[in-house]
């Protein structure tokens, strides 16, 4: 399914809270993604992001509707040529190619607009769908950080997937 990404807008709070309100989304993300995801949580996210330069967090849209979020973090010091990406999608829209398309759009945006040579993502070992999204976008598995994650009561491995700027 065709996806678009665009910066968050003030009027997105209701649609964001609706899309994000599932306990399955935060289960494979770092702690902090709320459940239940209220309109107040959405407003807090929007006020944190709107007006910030550069824009690093985007809404994912499919058929004009907000269905998820995607963003990146510019790293610093010796890692300043790296950007880490993260993304999530509303559960009813899983397995339709939307995250794959959103990641493709984001990596084009990063490589064309920033002095970044390496884009990476850290995926929990119990998240094969996300690894597939990265693989379909030309990412390679660089490392497995064994038992580095604790999520709830579960100890998990972290899979580090990376894509280098073309020609490097
Ligand atoms: C991970 C996530 C973003 C994937 O989004 P999506 O739009 O469903 O992804 P896509 O449809 O583009 O691709 C998913 C691929 O994984 C495959 N897949 C799904 N479940 C799978 C499983 N259990 N085992 C193996 N492959 C699986 C799909 O078949 C698809 O591959 P295909 O196109 O070759 O058939 C979504 O599940 C999500 O938001 N999860 C919660 C948050 C999260 O984990 N974010 C990423 C953190 S690193």
Describe this protein with a few key phrases.
single chain, alpha+beta, binds coenzyme A, 168 residues, Aminopeptidase
Describe this structure in words.
The protein is of the alpha+beta class and 168 residues long. The chain has a single domain (3-164), classed as Aminopeptidase (3-Layer(aba) Sandwich). It is 29% helix and 35% strand. It has a seven-stranded mixed sheet with strand order 1-2-3-4-5-7-6, with helices on both faces. It binds coenzyme A. Coenzyme A binds next to strand 4, helix 4, strand 5 and helix 5.
SSE blueprint and pairings:
Blueprint: E1 3-7, H1 13-20, H2 23-26, H3 39-49, E2 57-62, E3 65-74, E4 82-89, H4 98-113, E5 118-124, H5 128-136, E6 140-151, E7 154-164
Parallel strand pairs: 4-5
Antiparallel strand pairs: 1-2, 2-3, 3-4, 5-7, 6-7
Helix pairs in contact: 1-3
Bound molecules: coenzyme A.
